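step: validate -> pass
step: tokenize input -> pass
step: predict -> running
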Amino acid sequence: MVEKYTDTALHFEVEKLPHLLERNLPRGPLTFADFGCGDGPLFRILAAGGHIGPGRAVYALDLEPARLARVSARFPWIETVIASVDHAPAIGDESLQFVCSTMVMEHVPDERAFLNEIHRVLRPGGRVYLTTVFKKSWAWYFRRRDGETVLDPSHLREYTDIGAFRALLVEEGRFRILALERSQLWFPLLDPVLFRVGGRVSGLARRAALLRGLRAAKVPVPGYYALEVVLERAPREVLDEGLADISLFGR
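step: predict -> pass
step: emit ->
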């Protein structure tokens, strides 16, 4: 399944940071990781904005070596890590200021283990930007899994209850929610063709302006939305010396 997904699901480079992410990114360069980065669509724009750079530790984490090779070819200073998003021992405890994970949470077998691992690698006061799929009960899409409409057959879940999703994020006080937004999902009409040809479109993918134009025609996916959330790791309550721990974001 992973190999087939890698061959057919292209990750086009982001041209503009999502507003919620941009509003919650501190000045860089940051110690940073993208959990389930795929081809690394965020790295170019984050580097251009000075949020990440060669001077600080940056990790690209994914299960698929072919995708990480694409990251290394463009950004040799980023450390690639072949690992699951719920177990990444190569990244030290409390070593990162920021984590991104876009459209990954719906793929992981254990969503709590995924959140726990992000909590482990974040410094107190560190932040994470997550996105995932939300659907209404009447949602419709042409893909099916076990007779049910799904946006992607590789999804293990698609969230349907905002309240339950919020409760999951703040379980045991690990995180607090700084922002949560829901937005309509739009589907570029050309993407089924591009996904079908897979790696054979690599030459076209390098012609970014042409590709943007070809993918401009989009339609809304009925009943399907993207959930975007920014979480902050709860700070330590009190150090042994009696001083409150200060997040790097406050320095």
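step: describe -> The chain has a mean pLDDT of 84.
step: cleanup -> pass
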